Every structure is written in structure tokens, then in C-alpha cells.
């Protein structure tokens, strides 16, 4: 099942009540002033699309950013948004590839079987001459039952085990943050990387606002020495762009991919964590 869908595919299904479209755009990290992505959604979005606020839909019982909510809480939130069991979900972002893959990964982790990413996002939709609308959208409440599949993610203890066993860890942060030569955007965190990790900045998987082709992605991973037939773990700053790399791996044919949900925001603040500060793995 191809995780990407085209503008024409979505346009043909836009009025289907069993298809729900979600704008899952997060503001870029470290950009000032902060981009008001919800405001941009209100100004212009795909007809019928609901705003999927990744920040609001994360666990606020922890200080870590973007952690997954408990099943019951996520179930309530999706029901209110009008996302029901068995629906087909299409996520997109306003431009580029940054946060929509995280929304797709979240929904897959909670058990949604049919969830896709709109290839090219809102820009591709507009460029194709498709209609847009403004204002908030409120879908009828639905019934959603989340059941987290823990085989899709890892916690700190599992990451320590992966490091000890020299498993494949792909880090989606910038090369400078990975090497320890550029600062982390979150105060108080040292930059650097996990022992044995490979630097795969998520931006290297993107060209002209879209994920590269399957062959293009395979070339990137091959150049990094990634073994697609072996287990892989993706990580980043807070679990968002790790989902871009996870999606790239899926498109390249990898089947054993897990995401470290705490990512560097958790790892770098743990006193027992080993942090390396060179360019190895890049």
C-alpha cells in the first residue's frame, strides 16, 4: 500500500463522508517570529479539512515534547475532530515536508489502517487548480477507539539496548547538531549524537517540497550504508522529523522500522546517556 496519494486521488474522494482530511502543519523549529500555522489553515485549506494540532494532541503530563497520549485521551480527541474507526485519513501540510509524516505515524501507531500523506501537500493542491476554502471546519463527532501498537516505537531503555547491540539508528537532525558543532533549539540540551548512530538529515530526503522517489530515497540510504533489510530505529529532536525518515524508509522498502518517541529531547537530558560529538556516521 503506497503511503502517498496524489491530488487527483484525493479530489475524486473529497466529498466521501468516510474520507477525512487533516492539515497537520507544525511551525518550523527555531524560526522567529513563530509561524502561525493554524492561522494559515483558517485562511486557506483543502475543503473540509480539519486542523490536526500535533502540539495539542501530544501528552501534556510530561515535559517532553510531542509524546504520545494515552489511548483514552487520543480516542476522545479524535472523536471530537470527527475521525472515526474505519475512516480513510489523508494528512497534508501547507508547504514542504516536516510534520505531516508525524501525524500519519501517530495515527498508524494508534491503529488507523488507511492513512495517507498527500504528495506535495497544499501547494500541489493549489498548483493543480483545485479549490480551497477558509474558516474553521467542524466535522460531526465520530467514534474512535485508539489502541497503541508499541511495536512501532521505542523508549529510552530500548534505545540503550539498541546502542549496546549496535543496531541501526538513523538521526534526522541537521548534520551540525548531530556532530555537536551546532546548538540544539531546546535550551539546556547538549548537541551531539548517540553512539553508533548515522546522520540522515530529513532534508536530504526531500526535493522541491516532496519526498524523493523510491529510487532516490534508496540512493540516499545506500550512500549512508543503511541496510534496509535489517531493523531500523529513527530519532530526531522531538520525534517529529524522525517520522519523515521513517516514511522515507517505508517508501524505500524497509519493513522493520521503529521510532524513538522521546528522541534527543529525552536522551540528552538523561545522566546515563552517552553523547558523542564528532562527525562519525555522517
* CATH-scheme architecture of the largest domain: 3-Layer(aba) Sandwich
Annotated CATH topology of the largest domain: Oxidized Rhodanese, domain 1
Helicity, as a percent range: 25-40%
**Overall number of strands:** 12
Using only C-alpha atoms, the radius of gyration works out to 18 Å
Strands of the widest sheet, in order across it, are 1-5-4-2-3
Compute the number of helices: 10
CATH class value of the largest domain? Alpha Beta
The residue ranges in which pLDDT falls below 50 over 5 or more consecutive positions are none
CATH superfamily of the largest domain: Rhodanese-like domain
Distance between the termini: 31 Å
Morphology: globular
| Biggest beta-sheet profile | 5 strands, parallel
Query: Mean pLDDT across all residues, rounded?
Result: 96
Multimeric organization: single chain
Q: How do the SSEs run, as a string of H and E? A: EHEHEHEHEHEHEHEEEHEHEH
Derived structural class: alpha/beta
Compute the number of structural domains. 2
Beta content? 5-15%
Characteristic key phrases:
282 residues, alpha/beta, Oxidized Rhodanese, domain 1, 2 domains, 5-stranded parallel β-sheet, 28% helix
Task: Give a written overview of the molecule.
The protein has 282 residues and is of the alpha/beta class. The chain has two domains: 4-148, 3-Layer(aba) Sandwich (Oxidized Rhodanese, domain 1); 151-267, 3-Layer(aba) Sandwich (Oxidized Rhodanese, domain 1). It is 28% helix and 13% strand. It is built from ten helices and twelve strands. It has helices spanning 7-11, 37-43, 71-81, 100-109, 121-127, 156-164, 175-179, 214-223, 242-252, 263-267, and strands spanning 4-5, 19-23, 50-51, 88-92, 115-118, 153-154, 168-171, 198-199, 206-207, 210-211, 232-235, 257-260. The strands form three sheets. It has a five-stranded parallel β-sheet with strand order 1-5-4-2-3. Strands 6-12-11-7-8 form a five-stranded parallel β-sheet. A two-stranded antiparallel sheet has the order 9-10. Strand 2 (19-23), helix 2 and strand 3 (50-51) form a beta-alpha-beta unit. Helix 4 packs across helix 9 (242-252) and helix 8 crosses helix 9 (242-252). It is globular. The mean pLDDT is 96.
